[in-house]
Write a structure and sequence with these properties.
With 229 residues, the chain is of the alpha/beta class. Helix content is 30%, strand content 24%. Helix 2 links the parallel strand 1 (24-27) and strand 2 (53-56). Pfam families: Rib_5-P_isom_A. It is an enzyme of class 5 (isomerase).
């Protein structure tokens, strides 16, 4: 296995050790979560875990989990969830996160909101000293008037770029919305202020800032696992 994929799998395996029989799980989205869902599928098939159900945060995760025979629930059926597990694009020293490069930020945040605990799985390349330095901040917006957010982002010190596919089409989220990627020169100085200012705007559905939400971050590196709480 590619060494980077092995790190993701190591983090996912550690997160799986937090899962006990009968738990209702939030199942995040992304390449690291792919390993978690895969390992969870193995554990159910082998009978080392039983009675598990999950709420997927994207159609991709729904498809993978269904293929692996993981019983699925709608969010209102599963809530309160025992544990949400998800990846991240950035993790800062306060365990605040940027998420959403995979485009699933809205459902991911709704699932975390419904969970009693939230564990993040990542490789150590996601560690940053300041959010917004490694990745842009994804923002889900309704299609109507999306361009009107660009000057507001500029006022916050960010360059907003509509996310497009390789074919040049605007990317649509699972919810039919658009994504703006906000590039902050030098990172995000005050993530809470940015979150409040963006969330106050009509037309902004959700941001990829996950602040004060993570209970534990499992980071896999070449020298082993680092657990932050
Ligand atoms: C999707 C996300 C993912 O969790 C994030 O992009 C990390 O993905 P990966 O594990 O592939 O690096 O927020 O919306």
């Amino acid at each position: 296995m590619d060494p980077k994929e092995q790190l993701k799998r190591d983090a996912a395996r550690e997160a799986l050790s937090r899962v006990t029989p009968g738990m209702r799980l939030g199942l995040g989205t992304g390449s690291t979560m792919w390993h978690f869902v895969d390992l969870l599928g193995d554990a159910l098939a082998e009978g080392t875990l039983s009675g598990i159900s999950g709420v997927p945060t994207s159609e991709r995760t729904r498809d993978q989990a269904a293929e692996r025979g993981i019983p699925l629930l709608e969010l209102h059926e599963g809530a309160p969830l025992d544990l949400a597990v998800d990846g991240a694009d950035e993790v800062d020293p306060h365990l605040d996160l940027v998420k959403g490069l995979g485009g699933a930020l809205l459902r991911e945040k709704m699932v975390v909101q419904a969970a009693r605990a939230f564990v993040v799985v990542a490789d150590d390349s996601k560690e940053v000293s300041r959010l917004g330095t490694r990745a842009p901040l994804p923002i889900e917006v309704v299609p109507f008037g999306w361009e009107s957010h660009i000057p507001a982002l500029e006022a916050l010190g960010a360059r907003g770029v509509l996310r497009v596919s390789e074919a040049g089409d605007a990317v649509r989220t699972d919810n039919g919305n658009l994504l703006l990627d906000a590039h902050f020169e030098g990172g995000i100085e005050d993530p809470f202020e940015v979150e409040n200012r963006l969330r106050a705007r009509a037309g902004v559905v959700e941001t990829g800032l996950f602040l004060d939400l993570a209970d534990e971050v499992i980071l896999a590196s070449d020298s082993g696992l680092v657990i932050r709480r």
